[in-house]
Amino acid sequence: MKLCQKPIFGCFAYLHMVQGQVQAYPINNEKFPDSIETMVTDGYLREDETKRPGGGDITIDAEGEVLVSET
User: Fold this and answer.
1) 35-42: Cβ within 8 A, 24+ apart
2) For the chain, percent helix, then strand, then coil, each to nearest 5?
3) For every one of its 71 residues, what pLDDT tens digit does the chain have, with 9 covering 90 and above?
4) For residues 69 and 56, what is the distance between their CA atoms, to the nearest angstrom?
5) Is the whole model's pTM more than 0.90, yes or no?
């Protein structure tokens, strides 16, 4: 998981929560999600949980690692 570069309250914990949901996804789906949008569509995340606190997009790579872009 790429951690937040800027110290933003709750960012680290938030990304761990998202990573936990990504790790839970294959239990029911036999593969990692294709995208963060898939996580929303399949009910693992809400639409408002697709960006980190303070801004920055969250993405998921092919190995199920949660990444965050800095804004």
Assistant:
1) 35/59, 35/60, 36/60
2) 40, 10, 50
3) 445 555 555 778 888 899 999 999 999 999 999 999 999 999 999 998 888 877 788 899 989 999 887 65
4) 5
5) no
